[in-house]
Amino acid sequence: MKFTVNADLLKEREKCTFDVEELTNFLDGGVKQTLHRRKLENFFISDPRFKDEVPMEYLSHKERYEHAVRKSCILFKKVKEWQQFDESASNFMDIYKSFLGISVGSAIIKDGTPFSVHYIMFIPAIMGQGTLEQQEYWVGRAFSNQIIGTYAQTELGHGTFIRGLETTCTYDPDTEQFILNSPTLTSYKWWAGGLGHTCNYAIVMAQLYTKGECFGIHPFIVQIRDEETWNPMPGIKIGEIGSKLGMNSINNGYLAFDKVRIPRTNMLMKNAQVLKDGTYKKSVNDKLIYGTMIFVRVVIVRDIISSYLSKAAIIATRYSCVRRQSELKPGAGEPQILDYQTQQYKIFPAIALSLAYKFAAMRLWDIYNKVTSQLKLGNLEQLPELHAMSCCLKAVSTADAAVAVTICRLACGGHGYMNCSNFPNLYAMTSATETYEGENTVLLLQTARYLFKSYHDAKSGLELTETVSYLNNFKSLRHKTWTTNLECMNSAFSQVAGSKIENCYFTINQLINSGISQEDAWNEYTIILTKAAEAHCRQFVINCFVITLKTVKLSAELLKVLTELCKLICCHWILNQLGDFLQYSNLKSNDVSSVQSLLDECLKCIRTNAVGFVDGFDIRDEILGSALGVYDGNVYERLIEDANKSPLNQDPVNISFHKYLKPFLKSNL
Amino acid sequence: MKFTVNADLLKEREKCTFDVEELTNFLDGGVKQTLHRRKLENFFISDPRFKDEVPMEYLSHKERYEHAVRKSCILFKKVKEWQQFDESASNFMDIYKSFLGISVGSAIIKDGTPFSVHYIMFIPAIMGQGTLEQQEYWVGRAFSNQIIGTYAQTELGHGTFIRGLETTCTYDPDTEQFILNSPTLTSYKWWAGGLGHTCNYAIVMAQLYTKGECFGIHPFIVQIRDEETWNPMPGIKIGEIGSKLGMNSINNGYLAFDKVRIPRTNMLMKNAQVLKDGTYKKSVNDKLIYGTMIFVRVVIVRDIISSYLSKAAIIATRYSCVRRQSELKPGAGEPQILDYQTQQYKIFPAIALSLAYKFAAMRLWDIYNKVTSQLKLGNLEQLPELHAMSCCLKAVSTADAAVAVTICRLACGGHGYMNCSNFPNLYAMTSATETYEGENTVLLLQTARYLFKSYHDAKSGLELTETVSYLNNFKSLRHKTWTTNLECMNSAFSQVAGSKIENCYFTINQLINSGISQEDAWNEYTIILTKAAEAHCRQFVINCFVITLKTVKLSAELLKVLTELCKLICCHWILNQLGDFLQYSNLKSNDVSSVQSLLDECLKCIRTNAVGFVDGFDIRDEILGSALGVYDGNVYERLIEDANKSPLNQDPVNISFHKYLKPFLKSNL
C-alpha cells in the first residue's frame, strides 16, 4: 500500500531548524559512511526472500526457529556476495554491526539469528586465544561457514562468577586427549546462542585438570554434532533451553558431557598450555582475557544500547505527532500529544540518552584502542581503569535504556503494547543486555573496587588516571555559586561522584578500624558502593557529552540542538538524584527551581526539532519495524493492516466456536 | 516427578520466627476464608482437563487462542458445579478474584481468558446502567452464558479522553431504531477483550444523536455475531487486533459499523433515556458513572497489583535461597545470593509493597462502600475525593509494581528471562495495568486538580475531607527533630506532599496573576503537578500501613515483621526521593545516614523471615507457575524439565538442518 505523508508530520519537518542530513552524516562518521550504509541496507533489505507473509509473532516457537535458520543461510550467503564488491565488509565489526540484530539484521530476523554467537564469540575467541596454528586451522573454516560454532561458558548453576564453573576437562597423557565431563546437573552448560540445534562446534570453558591438579578455567574446542547427520556426538547431551521473554530464534542451548574425549590440540593454547606429558605451562599474563570482555561491553553501549534508544525515541516521537488526544484548552480541539509537557519529558530524554551513551562509548573506544596497543608492548597499567569504566558504563547504560524504552512504550498508550509497535521486541532485546555479559550489580561493585583504590591513591598523593582524576579536586568546586551552564552542572556531577566515593572510603575504613574484617565491612556497604559507581559513571557520561560539544565541527544550528539535549540530560539526572546534589554539590535548595526551569525550557526548544532530530537517526521503516513509527505517519492504517495479517483473522469464524463455544452456549439455554 | 525439599529452603523455614499460617489467615481475612480458598483451588486445579502437555508459549498464536476457548468453556461449566455447593461463589467478585487471571484463573489460562470482559464489564455495565427491565432481560442470559458479551469503548484513535470518541448512534423515530456508524478509521472500536472471535454481544459506547442534536457518549447493547453461525451480523466488520506483549489469549478485537440498526430499547436507559419520539431525557446525575471506574481501580490495586507483587517476591526470594554464587569471603564457599545486601534490597521492597498497596486499597474500599451507600441517598459530596484517591493510587501502584516485578526478574539473572520463570508473563500482566483503565499520567493530573482545589479550600478556611486533611497542619511538623520512628517518617511524607501541592498552587497562581490564562499556567506545570499527586499518594499509602499496624490484632511476632516491612518502605521511598525530603520535611542532611542505617537493619531483620513470609502468601505452585519459585526449591530440575518440553527438543535434529543448514555448509566447502 502507498500512503501520502501525514500532514502533521510534514509540518513538523518543515519547522526543523537544522540540516537533517548533517546529523545523519555526523552519526555515521561522515558523508561516505552514510552512503555506504544506505547502499548496504538496500542490497539486503530489498531481497524478497526475507519478506514474512505472516509476522513471526503469530507462528509457533518451532516454526520461528526454522524460519530463522532459513533466513540466516540466505543472509550469510548474501554477505559473501556483498563482500566481493565491498572490501570493508570483510571484518567482524562490520558483520556484527550490520547483520546481527541491530540494523539490517533486525529487519530480516527480528528476534535474532542463531548464528550470532558464531560471529560475536566463537571466531573472536579462536583469534584471541588460539595459537597461530590453531587460528590457521579453525578461523578460515569458521569464517567461510564450513562449520558453525558457539561459546559455552555459563552453566545452569553458575554465571558471572566464572571460578565457580563445574565442567571438568581432565588430561589423559596416555592417549594425549582431554576428557570433558559434567559432574552435576548444575554443571550443564546453559544459554549459549545457537547451541540448541544450529552449531556443530563449541568452545567450552572448563576446569582444567592435569597431573591431578586443577588449573582453573580454560577454553577447549569441541565438536558437538556430526557434520553429516547432525546427530549429537557420542557422550554429548544437547537441546535448547526453552522459550524466553525475547530472542526466541537465537536457539540458546544446553550441553552436558559424559566423558567426552577431544585431542590435546583442541585446547586453545595462545596463553596457557598443556604439553604432551601433561605439564601445565602458565599464561604469561592472565589479565589479557579482560580485553575481549571490555571490547564486548564497549560495543554493547556504543552500538546496541544507542541503537535501541534511537528506535524507541523515533517511534514515540513520530507517533506523538500523529496522535491527538484530550484538550489543552477547552474547545481548542485535540492537540498532538507531543504538545503535552509530560509527554515531552517521557520521550526527549531517550533521544538525549542515545547520544550521551554513544559519545561516552566512543570515548571509551578510543581509550580501549590506546590501551590495547600498549598491551601488545606488555604495558598493562591502564587495563584496570578501562575495565572499571567499561563495567559501570555497561551497567548504567543498559539499565537506563531498559527504563527509557519502557517509558517510550508507555508514552504510546495501549498501542505500545502491540507487537506491531515493535516495543515488546525492543524491550526484550534491551533488557537482555542488563543480564548478559556480566550482571549489572556485580559490574558496579567491580567499578566500586577500583574507585575505592583510586581514592586511596589520591589520598596517598599518587598520580590518578584520567577517568578518576576528578578525585583530586572535586572538593574545591563546592564553594562556587550555582548557575545552570554546562560547565557548572558538569562539575556538580564530579562533586557528587567524588563525595560518594569519599563517604564509602571513610565509612568502610571506620568499620575496619573498629575491628571488622575488610570483607564484612565491604559487604555491609554494597548498596551505597553501587550508587557511588553509578555516580562515577554519570559524571563520565556528562563529561564526554560536554567534551564532544566542545570538539565537534558542526553547523551552529545542529550544535545548538545537541547542546539542548546535553542540558536536558543534566537537568533530568540532577532532579532524579536531587538528594545527592543537595548534599554533595554546590547546588543549594533555592537553586532547584533554576534546574526545573532549564528543564522546561529545553523541552520546549527540543519540541520544535524533535521530528527532524529523530529523522536524522536515519533508520529505515524496515529496520525500525514499527507500525507506530513509520516515516510517513500513517499509523492507524498500519495498525489495521497489521491486525489483518493475524492468522486468526483469515476466517470470519474460528474453529473453536464449533468445537467448544457453541456446545457450551447451547448447553446453557 | 517427586522431589524432596531443597535443604537450604528447609533451613530457612526452620528459622522463621512467626506462625506462617497466621499470616495466611490474616491476608485471606480469616481462618474460614483460607480453608474455603484452598478447597476451591483444589476443586479446579486438580481437574486433568486443564493440564497443558506443551506449555502454551510454544504454540502458535491461533492455537493458544483455541486452547483458551476450550479451557474457558470447561472452566465456566465447572464454576456452575462449584456454585451448587458454595453459595458465596455466585457473585461477580468471587468469579473475578478466582477465575480471571489472578489466582485459579492464572493456573488454568495463564495468558487470560477471552471471557474476562464478559464478567468484568459486560454484566456489571448492564447492572449499573440498565433499567430494571433491561437487567431482567439481559443479566440472566449473560450470567448463565447463553450469550457472551464484551464492552467496546476505546477506539483506534481515542482512549482516555472519552469525549473524543467518534462512533455515532443516531435515533430514527420512524422505525424506533438507533443506527450505529463508524465514520472514520480512527473510530474503529479497538481493544475490547473477547471481541475478536469470542463474543456475540457488545456494549458499545457511542455519541448519541437524536433530533439533530448530539448528547454525548451513551451505552448501547449490540448483537455482533449470529448465534447459530457466529458470522458477523450485517454491516459489522470485526476481527482481533493482533499479537501483543502479553494477554494473547484475551482475544482483544476491533469493530466497525456500517449503518447498523438496533432497537431503541437496546440503549441502556437507567440514567439517560431516548423516548419513542426521539426526545432525550437527561440523566439525573451523570457523575454516577464514576462509581464503576472507581470500583475497578480499587480492585486493580487490592487484588491484581498486590497479587503480582506477591508472586514476583515469592519467586525471587525462594530462588535466591537456592541459588549460590560468588564469594562474600575468600574461600568461604558460595553463599546463598539472598545473603547479599544488594539482592535483599532488590527483593524485599516487593514483599513490602504487596502489603502496602493492599492495605491502602482496603482502606479505599471502605471509603468506597461508605460513599456508595451515601450515593444511593443522593449525597455526592465525597465522590470527588474518592475519585482523586483512586486515580493516583492506581497510577502509582501499577507503575511501582511494574518496576518491582522487573527488579525481581533481574535479581534472578538470566533465568528470570526464561518464560518458565513466569516473570515475562507477570511483567506483561502488570505493565498492562499501567495503561488500561486510564492512562497513568492523565490520572495523576486528575488527582492534582483535586489537590489544587483542596489546597485552595484549606487556605479559604473550608473544612477538608479526610484524605487531604494533612494540608491543614503539615507545616507545623517541620520544626520537629528527626527520628527514624514510624510516626516521624509518616509525618515527613505529609510534609513533602503538602509542600509540593503548596508550591504548585503558588507558582501557578503567580503565573495567572501575571496575566497568563489558567489553562496555560496549568499546562506549564504538569510535570511537577504529577509529582505532587504522586507524593500525595505515597503519604496515603504510608499512612494506611501505619494505621493498619496500630489496629490489627496479630501476634507480637508477626506484627514485628510487618513493622519491619513498613519501615523498609519508608526508608526506601525517602531515599528514592531524598531531594524532596531534604527540601520539604524535617529530615536534615545529617539525618540521612540514620535512614540508611535503618534500611540496612530492616533488610537484615527481614532476611531471617523472608522465606517464611513469602510462604505465608500461600500461593500454590500451579498458580505461581514458576520453575524458579517452586515450594520445594528444586529449581534446576524444573528448568531442565521445562526445557525438555519444548517441541524443538522432541527430535535430536531439526528439519531445518536438512532443508537449509546442510546445503549451506556444504556449499562453503
List the helices and strands and how they pair.
Two copies of one chain form a homodimer.
Chain A: H1 7-15, H2 20-28, H3 31-45, H4 61-84, H5 92-99, H6 104-108, H7 116-129, H8 132-143, E1 149-152, E2 168-172, E3 177-181, E4 189-190, E5 201-210, E6 213-223, E7 236-240, E8 253-257, E9 260-263, E10 273-274, E11 280-281, H9 290-322, H10 341-376, H11 383-411, H12 423-435, H13 440-459, H14 486-513, H15 518-524, H16 526-551, H17 556-576, H18 578-584, H19 592-616, H20 621-624, H21 635-643, H22 655-667
Parallel strand pairs in A: 1-5, 2-5
Antiparallel strand pairs in A: 2-3, 3-9, 4-8, 5-6, 7-8, 10-11
Helix pairs in contact in A: 1-19, 2-3, 2-19, 7-8, 9-10, 9-11, 9-12, 9-19, 10-11, 10-16, 10-17, 10-19, 11-12, 11-13, 11-16, 13-14, 13-16, 14-15, 14-16, 14-17, 14-18, 16-17, 17-18, 17-19
Describe this structure in words.
Chains A, B: It comes from Sipha flava. 2 copies of one chain form a homodimer. Helix content of chain A is 55%, strand content 8%. In chain A, 53% of the residues are buried. The model of chain A has no long low-confidence stretch (mean pLDDT 95). In chain A, strand 10 (273-274) and strand 11 form a beta hairpin. The first copy, chain A, has helices at residues 7-15, 20-28, 31-45, 61-84, 92-99, 104-108, 116-129, 132-143, 290-322, 341-376, 383-411, 423-435, 440-459, 486-513, 518-524, 526-551, 556-576, 578-584, 592-616, 621-624, 635-643, 655-667, and strands at 149-152, 168-172, 177-181, 189-190, 201-210, 213-223, 236-240, 253-257, 260-263, 273-274, 280-281. The first copy, chain A, is α+β, with helices and mostly antiparallel strands. In chain A, helix 9 (290-322) runs parallel beside helix 11 (383-411), helix 10 (341-376) packs antiparallel against helix 11 and helix 14 (486-513) runs antiparallel to helix 16 (526-551). Chain A is globular. The interface between A and B is large, with 139 and 139 residues.
